[in-house]
């Protein structure tokens, strides 16, 4: 009997120890005494930005559960603050915003992922908004890394040649969006914003403003000039969609030559898009998407009235006898072989690009080309408009790779920042590697000039 009592006592002690071990395991995973469904875990946050863009504190954090309820809303006051929260296990979406100031933005009445943060004033802001988003299935303590990027486009304006007696100048832009959802979707409600310009010297310029883009394929500008004699309004249509993360610098001229200036190379933004336009003979813009008042050319629409370009098939070409036909995108002697067209098994036609370039007036370009000679080869010319479009389309996204390649052979690098434009179409037009505009060349503005030449290669 005594032996049976001892066995029962030992069995009870064993069961008590087993229960104690189970409770300790619960403490490691969550909060002591909670059931498995009520366990909470620690959620922490690492914060970064695209290309180390500056973040504007305080940051605004929103946490949504899998039923689209906002279960947490907090501010992170500065870069030294750590975010840490204890949350029940489950699926969550975290949204983090930089630049969400009360004087620029309004919250929706109901904060859910599909609701919109809207702009308070004039559908634009003087502070750029950045957003980061991440989803997590919280089954253990987790640290999330969030990278914020710009969800707005930046707009600046420089207007040249405005009449001296003008008292104010402003630019209206449409369509734009009035807000963005917590999911990152623009509202696309086709609103308009108006940007005031101030006079500095002979120019009217604006500060940078930030807008939510609209999905429309065209962007309309309306320039309003107030004078003591009344108002004058002119319209311009930019044949492209404004994109988030891009700074746009619009430079307009009124009864004068184009003057391009300005620089926007801040961290976190894509390369600046420079847009030149004239508005001395443009009728007020009605804002229809199919109404094109642009005096320049866009993309492959490259014919210019009065063009004197020499057709490629009638161009006089030099023929070179070679042991092997060069391929495209190679170096031949002192020159870059850009395009190659096969004529037969033993002969091809190619476009060469010279290693040198100049920064010059359009009027002086022909003389520079006529005098240019490299490796006893002369007869150089400019890009035709069609060639300019093809070259830009080929290298716009990879110009750094091309520059790295050709610079190893001592070539001048192609310029694509700070509003750089190249002459084409016998000096009548210009193109850029940073945007899709073919524009008329101004008379008092310097442009880059790169010699090209069509040649024939023939096997020995």
Question: Can you lay out the helices and strands and say which pair or pack?
Answer:
Blueprint: H1 2-29, E1 40-49, E2 59-65, E3 70-76, E4 84-88, E5 90-98, E6 105-106, E7 116-119, E8 130-138, E9 142-150, E10 153-160, E11 168-176, E12 179-181, E13 191-200, E14 203-205, E15 209-211, E16 219-227, E17 230-238, E18 247-253, E19 273-278, E20 297-298, E21 318-322, E22 330-332, E23 335-342, E24 347-353, E25 358-361, H2 362-371, H3 385-395, H4 399-407, E26 422-424, E27 429-431, E28 437-440, E29 446-449, E30 452-459
Parallel strand pairs: 1-9, 10-18, 18-19, 21-30
Antiparallel strand pairs: 1-4, 2-3, 2-5, 5-8, 6-7, 7-12, 8-9, 10-14, 10-15, 11-13, 11-16, 13-14, 16-17, 20-28, 22-23, 23-24, 24-30, 25-29, 26-27, 27-28
Compact overview of the structure:
By secondary structure, the protein is mainly beta. The protein has helices at 2-29, 362-371, 385-395, 399-407; strands spanning 40-49, 59-65, 70-76, 84-88, 90-98, 105-106, 116-119, 130-138, 142-150, 153-160, 168-176, 179-181, 191-200, 203-205, 209-211, 219-227, 230-238, 247-253, 273-278, 297-298, 318-322, 330-332, 335-342, 347-353, 358-361, 422-424, 429-431, 437-440, 446-449, 452-459.
Walkthrough of the structure:
The protein has 460 residues and is mainly β. β22 and β23 form a beta hairpin. The radius of gyration is 32 Å and the shape is flat. The N terminus is likely disordered.
């Amino acid at each position: 009997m005594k032996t049976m009592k001892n066995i029962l006592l030992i069995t009870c002690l064993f069961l008590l120890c087993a229960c104690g071990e189970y409770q300790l395991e619960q403490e490691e995973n969550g909060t002591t005494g909670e059931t498995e469904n009520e366990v909470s875990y620690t959620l922490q946050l690492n914060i970064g930005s695209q290309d180390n863009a500056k973040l504007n504190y305080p940051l605004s954090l929103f946490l949504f559960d899998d039923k689209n309820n906002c279960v947490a809303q907090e501010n992170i006051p500065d870069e030294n603050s750590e975010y840490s929260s204890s949350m029940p296990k489950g699926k969550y979406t975290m949204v983090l915003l930089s630049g969400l100031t009360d004087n620029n933005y309004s919250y929706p009445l109901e904060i859910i992922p599909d609701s919109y943060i809207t702009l308070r004033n004039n559908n634009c802001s003087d502070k750029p908004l950045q957003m980061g988003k991440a989803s997590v299935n919280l089954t253990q303590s987790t640290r999330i890394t969030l990278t914020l990027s710009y969800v707005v486009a930046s707009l600046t304006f420089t207007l040249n040649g405005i009449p001296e007696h003008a008292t104010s100048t402003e630019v209206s832009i449409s369509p734009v969006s009035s807000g963005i959802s917590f999911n990152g979707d623009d509202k696309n409600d086709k609103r308009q914003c108006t940007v005031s310009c101030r006079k500095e010297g002979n120019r009217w310029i604006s500060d940078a403003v930030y807008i939510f883009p609209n999905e429309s394929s065209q962007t309309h500008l309306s320039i309003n000039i107030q004078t003591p004699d009344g108002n004058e309004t002119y319209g311009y249509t930019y044949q492209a969609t404004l994109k988030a993360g891009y700074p746009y610098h619009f430079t307009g001229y009124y009864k004068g030559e184009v003057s391009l200036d300005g620089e926007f190379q801040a961290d976190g933004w894509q390369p600046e898009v420079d847009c030149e336009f004239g508005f001395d003979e443009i009728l007020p813009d009605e804002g229809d998407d199919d109404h094109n008042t642009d005096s320049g050319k866009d993309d492959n629409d490259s014919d210019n009235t009065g063009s004197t370009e020499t057709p490629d098939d009638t161009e006089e070409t030099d023929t070179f006898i070679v042991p092997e036909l060069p391929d495209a995108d190679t170096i031949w002697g002192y020159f870059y072989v850009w395009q190659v067209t096969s004529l037969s098994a033993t002969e091809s036609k190619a476009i060469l690009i010279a290693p040198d370039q100049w920064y010059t007036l359009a009027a002086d370009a022909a003389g520079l080309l006529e005098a240019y000679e490299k490796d006893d080869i002369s007869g150089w010319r400019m890009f035709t408009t069609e060639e300019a479009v093809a070259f830009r389309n080929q290298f716009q996204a990879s110009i750094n790779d091309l520059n790295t390649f050709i610079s190893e052979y001592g070539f001048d690098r192609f310029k694509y920042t700070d509003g750089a434009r190249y002459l084409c179409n016998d000096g009548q037009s210009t193109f850029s590697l940073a945007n899709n505009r073919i524009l008329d060349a101004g008379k008092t503005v310097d442009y880059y000039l790169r010699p090209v030449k069509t040649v024939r290669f023939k096997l020995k």
